[in-house]
Design brief:
The protein is mostly helical. It has a single domain (3-429), classed as Proton glutamate symport protein (Orthogonal Bundle), CATH 1.10.3860. The chain has 19 helices and no strands. It has helices at 3-24, 37-81, 87-116, 138-143, 150-155, 159-176, 178-203, 206-220, 223-228, 230-256, 260-277, 280-294, 299-312, 315-331, 337-354, 361-372, 380-383, 387-412, 418-422. The two termini are 21 Å apart. Bound molecules: aspartic acid. Aspartic acid binds next to helix 16 and helix 18. Aspartic acid binds at residues 278-280, 314, 317, 357-362, 391, 394-395, 398.
Length: 433
Amino acid sequence: MSLTNKILLGMLLGIAVGIGFNLLIVVDEASNLPATPLGVWLQTVVIDGVLDAVGQIFVASLKLLVVPLVFVSLVCGAMALGGHSRMGPLATKTLLFYMFTTALAIGLAMGVAALVQPGAGVDMAPLANYTTPASPSVKETFINIFPSNPVQAMAEGNMLQVIVFSILFGIAISRTGGEVGSSMKTFFEQLNEVVLKMMLLLMQLAPYGVFCLLAKLFASIGFSAIADLAKYFFTVLFVLLLHGLVVYGSLLKLFTGLSPVIFFKKMWKVAVFAFSTASSNATLPVTMRTVEHDLGVDNKISSFAVPLGATINMDGTAIMQGVATIFIAQVYGIEIGAAGYLTVILTATLASVGTAGVPSVGLVMLAMVLQSVGVPVEGIALIIGVDRLLDMVRTAVNVNGDAVVSVIVAKSEGMIDESRFHNMKLNAEVDPV
Ligand code: ASP
């Protein structure tokens, strides 16, 4: 069986086993702990023991690859572009496209939510013990892009800072020229091959990792919360699917003429990684390799656009924020108004720039958005019960958005190998470098 199929099987089995455990474990209402000896054993030994350990090791192995892969690959890309006059326009185009898709996503979300009215008639009291997350200011966000210490940026996994440092480093190598320049160039190109080989090795863990993450998650997920918040939950889910499939498919077709079906077939496994880790950052190695290897985007674009997207482009997250803002405002009986809608679109688009793609960060950003239109931030406590499941789906949308924009920008620059895009046999997880 191919590795991709094994990963899919891992996902399906993980969900099935998780739901099975969920049904088997009878929870004591008062203490919220398993009530039977079997339940206690399953919870402590299997779920919180084995599944949790293997899941965490898998996520660690993905994260392990992020900094080396982004650094080495981006240095190679920047080296190749060097002082190329296209670099500025290329970066600007990518950035604007990311913002455009995010604004589109949140606009769509708020439009649908205004029609569905998810919060109308809902009578809920927010959790009392919820503390509001602190969120950074716009000024801090901007200053934070510029690294003062590259080692610290890498140690903390601060992607924007790593991106800035890698680009400068790559340009410096290409400007150095001569013997030093060319031997450094060879060195980084070879290092890139080694890092990719390491990725292929660690990918063997993926089916087991995906299985464990999903089994643990579905074993402990509270399905009853979904019933209480059904309207909110399904509105977000509907807009996520609409944006992820219809909007991205149309944008791809419109701007590149390439087939959305092929695109989604190739991105499917990336979506599975995003779904099971709920982190665009942890999925980054797989996204980057798939965009470059399977979709044929030139390294000069993918090495820059994909890591940038993982940090600043979160359309799925913006969708949750759009619906959540309207939902919470309705529950509290607050009218946002037309100006409020615009403020939400602007704040959510900017908020996504300053936050990294890690699980649940969308809630921190939501705090910024709610504050901007004067909706009580404690309202976040209303939706927290169903957020994990939505987080998984929106992360899958986020990474697809990064890939769509990368393909569109690459096509507009003539930097996509369309024979690779159309070749269905290519498989980044198993093909050698
Ligand atoms: N988990 C999402 C991501 O990594 C961010 C979020 O919506 O919380 O893309």
